[in-house]
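#lab-general

N.A. 3:47 PM
ok so I finally got the sequence cleaned up, no stray characters, all 511 residues accounted for. can someone with queue access submit it? mine expired

B.Y. 3:52 PM
send it over

N.A. 3:53 PM
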Amino acid sequence: MQIIQFNTVLKQLSGYAVFLIVFSMLLQSCADLDPNIEEFTEIPGKYEDIIDAQEGITGVYNQLYSATNFNDAYAPSWGGDDITTNFGANKEDFRQFDQRNVESTNARLNNNWRNSLNIINNANIVIDRANDLVGNDTVDQLILERIIGEAYFLRGMIFQHLARIHGRIILPITVDPIIYSSLSSQIEVYEQIESDFLEAESRLPDTNPDSVTGATRPNKGSARALLARLYMDWAGFPERDTSKYTDAQQKASQVINNKGAHGFELVSDFGDLWKVENRFNTEGVYTIPYCNACGLGNFKYGILGLPGDLSGWQECLAEIKFFEDFPAGPRKEATYRTDLEWESFNDQKNPVFAKITGPIGDLAPRAFLTDRSDFWIRYAEVLLIYAESSGRSGNVTPEAWEALNMIRRRAEGLPFATPDPSVDLTTGDIAELAVTERKWEFAGEFLRWYDLVRLERIEQALGDRQPQVSIDPATGSIIDERNPILGSLGTDNYFAPIPQAAIDDNPNLGN
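B.Y. 4:20 PM
back already:
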């Protein structure tokens, strides 16, 4: 199948213009839940030129898009106190996470494991083959270095994704057969992710020439931002290595200090982030793009966030208690569809995320495949990592307070770069203040669960989900939570099990 180079595609993007691309699905096909041993008994053939390397990395991106355009990759986030799902219908896989009763046969978990290993294995092929071209005088070494850096970035990103879900995982880093690999220790997992991101940081440019606004191809700042996120996880559960807060602060600081070179900045209006026309914007530190007209639309938005009363699919709904607690203001208005009288819904009474359905009038009424981008990490998160890690490392600076206050100002609809005594803070526990801002800033963005895990606050957050003030107008009573907790809220249930199908193929992966 012919591949149109992704860098050419991205340069054609402008506003709502349809971008042309042939997504070569399952390029350099790999394994199911574990790599097919027959496909990896021999080292794959070598690259002959830079075009081979470009096609190779394009194949890895194609697999990333096909792995993330559905909610399979994000299903564990339903464990957070911000997101819920329908109490019936075909949403059992999501309810298992929502109710903390995840089974190893969960189809979403299986799909994510399989898709993630496919991405990792293809990144391994690119790294192996591209390295054979290093020093070749007929090959553009700058482009080659960037391609290798992107492969390390994508591999580290997916290792990190799996580690946040499962804790201990396997670490295939070669193209050799790894079907009988065992789970690595948590330290080994973190060290491998760190190594991959450091490789990416050293090889990627400040701005990737193959990217559009929003870092649709990673740059040096993208790698540093995910390193900062890694160090925050490393400092929390389960390793609790608090020395990593200093590393997180350092990496976040590097991103902030070089934001101009990387093209990063907050978007002035928080609500604009969720409009299709703004799917490529300066707040994207790493952005996953989609193209509905090209056959790979984003299948996570639109009617997936609407109730049955509005002909929606009720897959990603908002938790009532979280909605009740959310501070009023422009950020809440942009996060939820406050125009809807959700208390009167007949099928299931839950608030609706504007972040999922899109702002009023932005998406077609029955849209479920869209051009919406996924912001894998936003610049707002870098700022809040910097603020929180500064407090937890004992190195609070004026810049840390400014990072926090930029988020607070925008939440109130104020210019984020202009000091305002009505909202600015300069005293208090900046780490906890930053965690609180993260709670509201990233509601419905599939991030809250991972904060609760690293901070060991699952029981605190999920132990009290019962609505307090939301009244059913038909009965005059408080609306009940429809998906009660069934599983443990202890640390024994923080990580999801390894999929049973993977264990069946490789007993060394036994939970």
